[in-house]
Design goal:
- One of its GO terms (molecular function) is xylan 1,4-beta-xylosidase activity.
- Its EC number is 3.2.1.37.
- There is one protein chain.
- The protein is an alpha+beta fold and 871 residues long.
- The chain has three domains: 10-362, TIM Barrel (Alpha-Beta Barrel), CATH 3.20.20.300; 451-594, Jelly Rolls (Sandwich); 752-869, Immunoglobulin-like, CATH 2.60.40.10.
- It is 24% helix and 25% strand.
- The protein contains 21 helices and 39 strands.
- Strand 36 and strand 37 form a beta hairpin.
- Helix 2 crosses helix 13 (327-344), helix 5 packs parallel to helix 6 and helix 5 (101-124) packs antiparallel against helix 14 (366-379).
- The chain starts with 9 loop residues before the first helix and ends with a strand.
Length: 871
């Protein structure tokens, strides 16, 4: 694949140079000057009102100076998000499970290629709105301290070191190596800091009285790595308060630590709408500030350069007039914003950047999609495999596939996602992998309900396609020509949570839609249409309105029962509009029946293997969602147990005497003690991206030797956890947990067994970065080639109150069957850096340490050696 097509770009560069040489001699237009010089010159030419206009994420054009419109808000959590077609890689938590930061950097180099292509297209078409820019608000490097947090799926797990390494890989892949004249993109480390739920009170929550050692040993290391080592160009502050002060004006976090201690001088952006929380009274905001004027001044003076939203910074002029700040304070932030855009080349130099010549064909190209498959394969964690149930015999006669996630492609995309060219569901992957096998599918159950909808959506069609045709308007009244026409092949489950559009290019507010399809039932009988939405909707069958809820607000599960006749066609039209706030729409048709576990199990009792694909869904866990079900609240979970309906169905399936394989998809750890003990095999696939079905089928068939490792602890019960709102790290994560986990951090099995020899460690005293070299012998004792994740932990024997152990190195190692390899780690001094309780700083102290190494964090399976760090 050639990234760069041969284009006639030389004349473009000459044209820019000629423009500069023929009268437009302002220094800010001179590409030979530095970004700093150009930003200072341009800043000096802006009026006060023009400066203020640049302080929110939507920065309008300033035509007299040639400054184009720009929107800072773009997403690329695991592929370019919300901007149309893109490669959808596995969700961030799944990428963490690969323990392969080199491959993650390659992923985000591909992501940045696709982002640049989309930006180039937007410039050429003069469409410069949201999700079309070069500043990407990823990675999320908050610590996943509690599995109940719905946004934990966006992180790289519970360990500060793993998170740091993955965060650096993302930044490197997005921004480039920093050696060129222009940055490829700008990454954004978020959410700074001490932020990881709950979602339902994030606008009012006050993280206070947190031990200082937890701040420095857990919550800050990944951010420090991003700033100091990764030179990340943006940092996003969090919604919540820390020690009584909102994070987006927190003097300790933004001024003392970020700016002064770490020397950060690039852009700080608020989380979206966060500044509005300052002056909004509880229970809807912090209520810490009296007015918008006070909010604007305090946030800006604290180092917050850019507001996502427009709640406060449009009032900066009034703040200056009131004497709360001065124009020089504003200039400091505007300079940073201008410099960032010059560094990216997106003010006047688009044609001069190395990426202007990227081929449009790079978006979702074959090599990128192959990488998505590779990463999905690497991310799958084999939790158990009793009696070598897996891999399945390729000559197996009959496989039964059940579960709410078996035939759902959208689930695999996670959240903050793009839209792939195509997805392979887990059911489709199994059918393709076992073409000579009878593969039967039965949904079996929904996620949490004791009833199950036997969907008839697959009996709908439009324009020769399965499903419904969807037309969208950028008004509330379905007037004029639609701005977008697309198709939905699965039951509708749409939301604008997290500013997600219903379809590419569709607004997230103030829009309307019409969904059309022809329904032809295979049997006669009653069929129930289910509609739920916020705001208005109406359902028409053969032109007759049967549901009419054309008004603002949320309406839950409105139904209509049709006495359907076999073979007759029914024209179905669902119309919808969004007024303000949340946009939600769910639609399905079929029969909802009470779940009979024994009946379901009896229907698949003749299968040679039963594969149940369950777990959770991004429609249940995520960012500040409107979901309020048993076990779920606002996108978080109130309990971490596998929903009871799935647990009971697994037990009924096991009672058939057939082998039962549980494939669990989720964005977080799930307590499933019965399944862990009784299922013949358990795979955790997280949200595996567009190629998830192929990857899982590869593992089931033995074409892929599973090698993923858990980036989070799987606890046995909700009762194992402290209170969700308690930010103390006591009894959380593998580093502090006092109980026995169901599955430990770093756990993962494969089709090969690996054994570890006695490691050697050699101290170094040459004054270099490394203080010791550790060599670990690893043997693949199995019959199949495979990858092992070698993990190295350090225990500080000088501090009995600190972490039990801390990951300090890891490496994915490819081995052939029967091969022994020596894996060498150069341990830097930072591997022995821990919190000094006397000086209350992170410090490398000479003294005694224990090195633990192996393929898991489980003490019982790790080998150990002693090491004394000399002065």
């Amino acid at each position: 694949m050639f990234k760069y097509l041969v284009r006639p770009i030389l004349f473009l560069g000459l044209a820019v140079a000629a423009q500069y040489a023929t009268g437009q001699t302002e220094p800010y237009r001179n590409p030979d000057l530095s970004a700093d010089e150009r930003a200072r010159d341009l800043l000096s030419r802006l009026t006060l009102d023009e400066k203020i206009s640049m302080m929110t994420n939507h920065s309008p054009a300033i035509e007299r100076l040639g400054i184009p419109e720009y929107n800072w808000w773009n997403e690329a959590l695991h592929g370019v998000g919300r901007a149309g077609t893109a490669t959808v890689f596995p969700q961030a938590i799944a990428l963490a499970a690969t323990f392969d930061d080199g491959a993650v950097a390659e992923v985000f180099d591909m992501v940045s290629d696709e982002a640049r292509v989309k930006y180039n297209q937007s410039v050429r078409n003069n469409r410069r709105g949201q999700y079309r820019g070069l500043t990407y608000w990823t990675p999320n490097i908050n610590i996943f301290r509690d599995p109940r947090w719905g946004r934990g799926q966006e992180t790289y797990g519970e360990d500060p070191y793993l998170t740091s390494r993955m965060g650096l890989a993302v930044i490197r892949g997005l921004q480039g190596d920093g050696t060129g004249k222009y940055d490829k993109l700008h990454a954004c480390a978020k959410h700074f800091a001490v932020h990881s739920g709950p979602e339902w009170n994030r606008h009012t929550y006050n993280a206070t009285n947190i031990p200082v050692e937890d701040l420095w040993e857990t919550y800050l290391p990944a951010f420090k790595a991003a700033v100091v080592d990764g030179h990340v160009k943006e940092v996003m502050c969090a919604y919540n308060r820390y020690e009584d002060e909102p994070c987006c004006s927190n003097k300790k976090l933004l001024k003392k630590i970020l700016r002064d201690d770490w020397g950060y001088d690039d852009v700080v952006v608020s989380d979206c709408g966060a500044l509005g929380d300052f002056f909004t009274r509880e229970p809807y905001g912090h209520g810490t500030h009296k007015s918008k004027l006070e909010t604007a001044a305090d946030a800006l003076l604290s180092g917050n350069d850019l507001e996502c939203g427009d709640r406060a910074y449009p009032d900066i002029k009034s703040s200056i007039e009131a004497g709360l700040m001065n124009e020089a304070d504003l200039d400091r932030s505007v300079f940073r914003l201008l410099r960032a855009r010059f560094q990216l080349g997106n003010l006047f130099d688009d044609e001069l950047t190395p990426w202007w010549s990227l081929s449009d064909s790079l978006v979702a190209c074959d090599s990128h999609r192959a990488k998505a498959l590779e990463m999905a394969r690497k991310s799958i964690v084999m939790m158990t495999n009793r009696n070598n149930t897996l891999p399945l015999d390729r000559g197996i006669k009959k496989i039964a596939v059940l579960g709410p996630n078996a035939n759902d492609s959208v689930m695999m995309w996670g959240n903050y996602n793009g839209f792939p060219k195509s997805s392979v569901t887990i059911l489709d992957g199994i059918r393709s992998k076992f073409p000579e096998t009878e593969v039967v599918y039965l949904k079996g159950c929904d996620y949490v309900d004791e009833t199950v909808t036997l969907s008839e959506f697959d009996k709908m069609s439009a324009d020769g396609r399965k499903g419904m045709k969807a037309s969208f308007w950028n008004n509330r009244t379905l007037d004029g020509d639609p701005m977008r026409v697309t198709y939905f092949g699965e039951p509708l489950n749409l939301t604008n949570n997290g500013e997600t559009a219903f379809a590419p290019d569709v607004p997230v507010v103030n829009f309307s839609a019409r969904f059309e399809g022809r329904y032809v039932p295979a049997e006669s009988g009653e069929v129930t249409f289910h509609v739920e939405g916020d705001d208005g909707f109406r359902l028409l069958i053969d032109g007759k309105p049967v549901i009419d809820e054309w008004g603002e607000g949320h309406k839950s599960d409105i139904t209509y029962v049709l006495d359907a006749k076999k073979g007759r066609g029914y024209d179905i039209v669902l119309e919808y509009y969004q007024a303000y706030g949340s946009a939600d729409l769910k639609f399905d048709l079929g029969e909802r029946v009470p779940l009979d576990y024994k009946s379901v199990a009896s229907q698949v009792a003749d299968a040679d293997a039963i594969i149940f694909v369950g777990g959770l869904s991004p429609h249940l866990e995520g960012e500040e969602m409107g979901v309020h079900l048993d076990g779920f609240r606002g996108g978080d979970r109130t309990a971490i147990e596998l929903p009871a309906v799935q647990d009971r169905l697994l037990q009924a399936l096991k009672a058939t005497g057939r082998p039962v394989v549980f494939v669990m998809c989720s964005g977080s750890a799930v307590a499933m003690p019965w399944a862990a003990e009784n299922c013949d095999a358990v795979l955790t696939a997280f949200y595996p991206g567009e190629a998830g079905g192929t990857a899982i089928a590869d593992v089931l068939a033995g074409d892929c030797n599973p090698s993923g490792r858990l980036p989070v602890t799987f606890y046995a019960s909700t009762s194992d956890l402290p209170d969700f709102e308690d930010y103390y790290m006591d009894n959380r994560t593998y580093r502090y947990f006092e109980g026995k986990p169901l599955f430990p951090f770093g756990h993962g099995l494969g089709y090969s067994e690996f054994s570890y020899g006695d490691a050697t460690i050699k101290p170094l005293a040459d004054g270099g970065e490394a203080v010791a070299v550790l060599n670990v012998p690893v043997t693949n004792a199995g019959q199949m080639d495979g990858d092992e994740i070698v993990q190295v932990y350090v225990r500080n024997l000088q501090d009995p109150y600190g972490p039990k152990k801390s990951l300090r190195a890891f490496r994915r190692v490819a081995t052939r069957a029967g091969e022994t390899v020596g894996v060498e780690f150069a341990l830097p001094s930072a591997a022995f850096e821990f919190f000094d309780r006397e000086e209350e700083v992170m410090k490398v102290k000479p003294g005694d340490y224990e090195i633990l190494y192996g393929g898991t964090s489980d003490d019982a399976l790790l080998k150990k050696l002693s090491f004394t760090l000399k002065k």
